[in-house]
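Deviations from the work plan: none for this task. Representative record:
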Amino acid sequence: MSHWQTICEVDALQANSGVCALVEGQQVAVFYMPKSQSVFALHNYDPFAKANVLSRGIIGDLKGEPIVASPVYKQHFNLKTGCCLEDETVKIPAYSVRIDQSHVQINLDYD
Amino acid sequence: MNTPKKTLVVIGNGMVGHHFLTSLVNSPIKETYHIVTFCEEPRAAYDRVHLSAFFSGQTADDLSLVEPGFFEQHGITLHIGDKAAQINREEQTVLSDKGALIHYDTLVLATGSFPFVPPVPGHDRPECLVYRTIEDLEAIATVAQKSKVGVVVGGGLLGLEAAKALHDLGLKTHVVEFAPRLMAVQLDEAGGAMLRHKIEHLGVTVHTGKNTQLITDGEHCFNKMCFADGEELETDLILFSAGIRPRDDIARACGLEVGPRGGIVIDNQCKTSDANIYAIGECALWNGMIYGLVAPGYAMARTVVADLASQSAHFTGADMSTKLKLMGVDVASIGDAHAKSQGALTYTYQNGDLEVYKRIVVSADKKHLLGAVLVGDASGYSTLLQYCLNGIELPEHPDTLILPSRSDESGGLGPDALPLSAQICSCYDVSKGDICQAIEAGCSTVGDLKAGTKAGSGCGGCAALVKSVLNSELTKQGVTVNTDLCEHFAYTRQDLFTLIKVEKITTFDDLIEKHGHGLGCDICKPTVASILASNWNDFVLKPELAPLQDSNDAFLANIQKDGTYSVVPRIAGGEISPDMLITLGQVGKKYQLYTKITGGQRVDLFGARVEQLPLIWKDLIDAGFESGHAYGKSLRTVKSCVGSNWCRYGVDDSVGLAIELENRYKGLRSPHKIKFAVSGCTRECAEAQGKDVGIIATEHGWSLYVCGNGGMKPRHADLFATHLDKETLIKYIDRFLSFYIRTADRLQRTSVWMENMEGGLDYLKSVIIEDNLGLCEQLEAQMQHVVDTYQCEWKTTIEDESKLKRFKHFINSDQADDNIVFIEERGQLRPAETKVQKHFKLVEVA
């Protein structure tokens, strides 16, 4: 089953950076790379800092994989999978997200 | 075994005497001796080689060679400030000035030397001084205070060193030499002439071939020197540095054999004519030679320790090669510099434009290097010395060793060409083999090697060679030294700085497209953001710049562990009016912020949520505050003491200067944070000598210190320049900061930058003060641009609706982050210890 919901318009996103959206009580960090028109969504919670801050991290890539660096202790998380690069036992929820026309849509049923 | 201990007495606790003690206590035979040492001076051994550092702010403690607790720990009885006066060889006793009578089984004389003062009438006038002990230096400083002109008698190595000291003390300095050229022992005629030219260029007047006949009352100065050729020279201070004489009086008095021109005669085991008595260092005469350098003295000390331990050891002379920087001029002399050897051939290279002179002396068969003279460029010293000492066969055309390389070939002797036995550090007798062993045992930096082997910690002349051995060995071990910034840029920070500046690049996208690959990361993005800001000083939250900023810069505040921020408004120089202080209190109260005084004399307000930041800053800016840049790798604070306006000891207005400097450099982005302090007198209440830039007021103007640090690895700042007026001071700081910003690594504080700088403080001075790189104009322009384009980043932010969008926790809700929870402690709020992790559970990876 898929359940897409619109959370905001594209122009509410920050280019090459993240924002945080409140979706069904969950904090979702949405990252936007306009050049490749790609969007990624992770839970906003940084398990190392125990704080909701990942949307404020620097994004980029490491070895070709898109990543965000925690703004607190600088661990890297894969934007596609939520896996932590420094500690393979840590994985945070990654959500499906897409741009439909100008709507940013998310599907919280992550797998 | 219970044999009673024998007594070993060492007379003299100078550099060589102390080196003997440290070698002895590291040897098992120390157990057989009760050790007693006499030290005539009021303080134990200190570094005489770097004596002039005393004038650049180093204290007697800094110069000390004695590890804390050394004498106590090793049970050595130290008679300090007590001179050994008499030796009774029959009774085997030493009697001191203060009446101590010590029986010895073995006696070591390390009495050193005294400065030779020519017996010219007037040589004992009150302003006639010598340059040997810390007390001498104190006397020089005292006389210099009332002097305008100073003369050094003696143009040798020590004399030129002394001339530098007088020059640094602000005196109009002359050097008077009896011989027809400077450094006559080490340099040939052309080399001496080049050195003279360079030194005169620096403002020291050189007089050669001058025979002083009388010192008498001057007309404009305290004294007048009259020379044999009828000329006269007016001067206030006269410093004799005309060579040394061995202190052999105590040996002479007890009938030990001494040389016809002085010096206690020793054999290859450093034994005197009495088998129970050794002599080492500058008091000893070996094979008709007195060695006036520290390395041979150390070698003698080690020979005696080995001989006492019944190991076969011989002192068979020492290499007298030297390399030093005299008044910023590189000078080196190796082996047979005067080509006195039979059939010796010479090759000379002279560059009148760059003022470089090089000469090598080669054996008749052109196979071996016998000697060399280098003036103006001594970079080839290590290579040439190794050729000379290790008898390494020369290349087919020996002159390639001194001709400048016009292509990529280095011409130098790679460290791999050296045998393991090659001595790298002559001060501490460290061989290449010793260094390789230390590297195998895990040393991976020059600092490790210094600590582990002592190599390079004496005169420092071998530092470059130690580094090249290290790099070569590490490469062999497969350790590649990768200096790329990160996987996106195959460049160092310095490279990127140059690319950005030269190509006038203003965005990260432009830079990575032209010179990198991929998308970037949290290493290169903030680094580039900082370089862009240092160069162009654009608003850091411009849409194309904001995503590059590190955590704190991105929200112009300091992120705390729970995701809230702290706010630090600028309080320039730490001066704040009661009204402004009240405003801070009101803002803290209104937003329920935890309030703490910082180490930089300002106030930090903690616990601000991201959405509160613009509101807090609106209130602060309305009251007249501006951003404190506590979030940036940038100028933080200029700390100050209250200074001459209030303090009864204050010499100058430290607060006024601190405010001016803080306002000048505020907002300047740099490789790491920068801290300043200004003290109004030498009591140094602002702790300026622990800052990146420290300024201390003196009666003669401002003294500038650089590259100090507190924190994890404290570093005492280096005295950079003295007697500065404000204009010059600011010029130097402009250049210093711009040069640091250009050349430092990412996140490298000025202290570490300095530690890693080849050529160290002297090099930095040559760039900033003497403009050797011809960069100063550019460096000043770079800084002036930043000064002229300053803006308060918070003022710009709150005036622009579009910038405020980022300062919300949710884009689609006005709710606050419910995971931020405070509790109260000591009347203020702080983050709660355990927060309920209600948002999701970690997903374990199978």
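The first strand of chain B starts at residue 6 and ends at 11.
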